[in-house]
Amino acid sequence: MKKKSLLLMLTLLLVLSAFLAACSSGDSADEPADTEPTEEGNTDDAEGDTEGDAGEAQSGGTLTYGVDAPPEGLFNWAFYGIATDADIIALFDEGLIEYDENLAPQPNLASWETEDNKTYTFTFEQGVMWHDGVELTVNDWVFALETIADPDYDGPRYANVQTIEGAPAYRAGEADSISGLNVIDDYTIEVTFDEARINNLVNVWAYPMNRAQFEGIPVAEMSASEQVRTKPVGLGPFKVDSITPGEAVIMTKFEDYWKGEPKLDGINVQVIDNTTTVGALGNGDIDMISLQPVNGPEVEELENVEIVTYPGLSYYYIGFKLGTFNAETNEIVEDKEKYADVNLRKAMAHAIDRQSWIDAFFFGYGSPVNGPVPSNHWIAADPEELATYEYDPAKAEELLAEAGYEDVNGDGFVEDPNGEEFVAKFSHYATGNPTFETRAQAIVQFWQEVGINAELEMAEVNLYYDMIEKDDPSIETFFGGWGTGADPDPTALWGSDQLWNYPRYKNEESDQLLADALDLEVVGDDQEARKDLYVQWQQMVAEDVPMIFIAELEEIVALNERVQGVEYDVSGSNSPHEWSIAQ
Amino acid sequence: MLKYTIRRIIGMIPMLLLISFVVFLLAKAMPGDSLSGEIDPNNTDPQYIEEMRERLGYNDPIPVQYFRWVGGFFQGDFGTSTRYKVPVADLVAERLPNTIFLGVSSLVITYILAFAMGIYAGRKPYTLGDNLIGGLNYLGLAIPSFIAAVFAIYFFSFNLGWIPYSGSVDPTLQPGTFDYWLSRAHHVLMPAIVLGALATASYTQFLRNDIIENSRKDFVRTARAKGTPTSKIYNVHIMRNSIIPLVTFLGFDIATLISGAIITETIFTYPGIGQLFLSSVTNRDYPTLMVITMMLSALTLVGNLIADILYGVVDPRIRLD
């Protein structure tokens, strides 16, 4: 009996240790969620056809679409949480607006008119059918907006609805409907926002929800309902036949699709583990999948698979903590002295060889970025207009000396201007991915090579962002990534009253530029004027170096050679109804 | 026996309470919470995150949160997954059949292999065959399941194309048909072999050693002297004595059946409890995480009780009182 109780103890220990081990072992995903750009818009073909699309594309065939992370199963635009779910929804549902290759909004299910950027009149396409045979009307959109503004709604989209006049009152329970929504007839609706803004249109929630399907379901129970989880009904080119949770989604073509009958007979979405991606592609079991950079070189060697890359909208940076954020007053004070000297920051930027770092850790699927906007965004400044920090160790050492950082005690590393030991602490998040530590170590070595004594600290990813957000004293310089959406407004990340302004960069001129770029009185409808202001802003940020901009990544997709008609640009892929398979 | 069982079950209550306390504290001690992964300026804003924290009660004092959770548990409310936004009970129920199917299959494979090899090795100890079996077993014990899984996928799925490498069933088939069940068996085969074959070592060696030990005992010598056939001695006299230690394992097997295989399920993208458990930890999905841990702890306790009772059945000399 004694032996048995020992075994019992051991088993309990094992259960606990499995639980602890799992804490550190992270997801198989390469990057934390916050670096995922959201791409909701599809575009009609923009650039020229990619190769292999000569002649008439045949119809028929079923395409197998791989995803390497299990979906959460929230298959509705209003409720989804992760990119995998969004990718799947995009195959069977679509929105009122889509985005072209310049990320400019284009009419899709609806077109719009506005005179003052406050009141918009949307006109819906007539005869657009939901998969259940009911026609789409503006009421479905009103229903979606009211669902999101409902106090019981448990998804993250309220920010896209709150700018509509009367939405806050509806949410607080003071009104029975949203006063800014004025239904004129089944195909026309007038939407009034609380104030005139240049980005009201790109910001507003533009996905209708099928009113008939959700009838009688309280908002609080919607995200658990079968209409969201296993029997979603959309407007897109394919309709969902069956869903095996966590494994597969089977779709067949929707013959009444409003843009015309899809060429494919169907799409099977198959969840696979990323250890099997290369083999599955090689065997032809998977026709199409988004790749992680690490798999790129292996897939490139496969003969039956073609790799397509398109510009992404996310970028990586190394931030300097310049101050602290006061959560009570929502104010930033630049009160941290250690990296206050701009020459020190510039020296640290010149010390990093970004190109070879990207080649080593992202297998070349990326390029150095010089400002806080990925270079393919329409507001991105030309690199020549920006202060850039090329790899130049000699320049870095010169700048350090200029700033008073010199090696006084002869240990090979510089001391700060007061003669004290200077140690730059660099923090990076840790997940299960073993390359994170090496790539962070590489940065530390770049700094050490120019005489800055640097130290690496890896922090568990959840703890990491918590520490950054709370301005933990142990965070000095930190690695991070952000994504940009179609709306270029970077205020949420750069305004001096924003929690997510992680470097705690405070610059009144910058605030002013960002405010002006949204101000109709200043820029009016003129996108060029707006871009000008953003370029000025980027110049200022590049000059001030609150963060070292490291890299922007490409999105990589592997396509089996039999797949035709798939095209990508910065806004994502073309509509799946144009995809086809060579017979 | 009944009295003993009841006493043991009552004894489990404080144990489970203690476990719930530890599980809760450990879960809360993990850095971050279910919302820390949602920092994305395109998708949400700090106000939403703050509101959700308030709504989920993350800002309440720890004791309040603990009693709310335990209170819900007693009323049969296991909470709602913060990630999947469905009741945890539904989530577990959706995956449990997959995991049990995998667990039972792998256990059957383990038992068949272990009994065949253990009996052979026990009857012919120190021969080439015995050493070969011992070597194979320890090799199996030494190979981590994720390595074996990846290699198995490479050879049997990619090179030979015999066996599917992902999912639990061919999703195009109609549930309930014969083909559907065939496809499920086909899908479970490889993960079950990987799990089952690697776990045989302890069973085989225990069985072998016990058979060797028993075969030297007096009652075996007596039986031989009486002229009892060798096969009867091994299959009846020795066997019955030798499975006693294996009964101990059976108790733990019950928990293993449910806990699934975290790594193996993930590599084969087999949607079971193990995969759910892993994702609940990485996403700080506390309700799911705590329910699964509690379930496994309770099952380990119950499994032990069953093992203890079975001792009495297998070996009447052991008295439970």
CATH superfamily of the largest domain in chain A: Dipeptide-binding Protein, Domain 3
What is the residue-mean pLDDT of chain B, rounded to a whole number? Answer: 85
The secondary-structure class of chain B comes to: mainly alpha
Total of helices of chain B = 14
Largest sheet of chain B: none
| Sheet having the most strands of chain A | 11 strands, mixed
Termini separation of chain B (Å)? Answer: 6 Å
**Helix content class of chain B:** over 70%
**In the CATH hierarchy, what is the class of the domain at 90-271 in chain B?**
Mainly Alpha
Q: Give a count of the beta strands of chain B, DSSP E runs of length 2 or more.
A: 0
Principal-axes geometry of chain A comes out as: globular
Relative strand content of chain B: under 5%
Strand content of chain A: 15-25%
Radius of gyration of chain B: 24 Å
Compute the CA-based radius of gyration of chain A.
26 Å
* General form of chain B: globular
